[in-house]
Amino acid sequence: MTTLKSLMVPHRIVMMLLFAALVLWCALSLRWDWIPKYAPLALEGLWTTIWILALTTVLGFLLAVPLGLAQAIGPWYLSIPARTFCTIIRGTPLLLQIWLLYYGLGSLFPQFPWIRSSELWPYLRQAWPYAVLALTLSYAGYEGEVMRGAFSGVAKGQLEAAKSFGMRRFTMFRRIWLPQAVRNVLPTLGGETILQLKATPLVATITVIDIYAVSSRVRSDTFIVYEPLLLLALVYMVIAGLITLAFKRFENQVAR
């Protein structure tokens, strides 16, 4: 009921009517006859976008936790490499990182016979492992800095109280430090995950067929420009909305 009342505000009603009019105009005035032909490829590209986003976000966060911890309390021989890694990742374009991995490592591996004859070669010769690695490192670099601030922001008194009760360091980290740090940065993590979604189209530059690559193929095959882009924007908006709702629900559960 509260959500319905919040929507029944004059300016929001006007915005919803304008959006409905725009959708109706797009449905009646633009060309959509190409959709049945490219629907299977679009579903495959959508699945590629989703699993790359999910995998790189999870792996990047798992890498960001030790990066943030090393910068927050680690000795110099751990904090300096962690800080250097985050600085390099945050200071260079993601497209450059993807190209360096794909055209660098990707062209270096074939020169070693023992790699070409290994069981990893069927995967290393493809483009998606380099895309996953680049996006994972990018997410870890940004979130490593976020987690550094999160770990530093946890009240020291709670950690001292846990020590006084004889709690082991790993138990204290698992039960007190990490949960509170994650709770404090959940809104930031949600925003960074949406930014990660917006970065996934860059994998199309190394021949990974994601949803953006499918829209580009439609444009090149049919010379239809606006319709694929509008549909692509709608797909990204829906995914971003689902990510926002998921993090909102998780925040509410954590708050309870």
Automatic annotation (TrEMBL):
Q: Which GO terms describe its biological process?
A: amino acid transport
Where it sits in the cell: the answer is:
Cell inner membrane; Cell membrane
| CDD domains in alphabetical order | TM_PBP2
Q: What is its main location?
A: membrane
- Gene3D superfamilies given in the database record: MetI-like (1.10.3720.10)
- Keyword Transmembrane helix recorded: yes
The residue ranges of the ABC transmembrane type-1 domain are 46-247
Transmembrane stretches, start-end? 47-70, 229-247
Q: Which GO terms describe its cellular component?
A: ATP-binding cassette (ABC) transporter complex
Q: Which PROSITE patterns match?
A: ABC_TM1 (PS50928)
The GO terms this record gives for MF are:
transmembrane transporter activity
Membrane topology summary: Multi-pass membrane protein
- Please name the Pfam families in this protein's record: BPD_transp_1
Write down the NCBIfam families for this protein, in alphabetical order.
Answer: HEQRo_perm_3TM
* Family indicated by similarity: Belongs to the binding-protein-dependent transport system permease family. HisMQ subfamily.
The protein depicted here goes by the name ABC transporter permease subunit
Q: Which organism is it from?
A: Parasedimentitalea huanghaiensis
Task: Read off the lineage from the record.
Answer: Bacteria, Pseudomonadati, Pseudomonadota, Alphaproteobacteria, Rhodobacterales
